What does this fold into?
Amino acid sequence: MGGGRSAHDLSSRRRRERIASYLDHLGDSQQRRWDDLGTPTLTKALRAKLIAETLSDADGKNVSQLAVERDAKLVEVVESLRSK
It folds into this structure.
């Protein structure tokens, strides 16, 4: 790829941009939910931390892969509740 960037770098940049876009779009409503907790404020530092930790937790997986994992875990929960 041009400019010395790897496909992984571009993919990480795109993910970072998507998370940032989410926070741009829904950050105010998230802040209102946090206001009920009493102290959290969506500062630039917290925003950067949310993006970094979300990317870390995703471990390079795309949204579709994460959805498959989520759905499998939800099935496990439902099956566990049914067996009680």
Remarks:
- The mean pLDDT is 85.
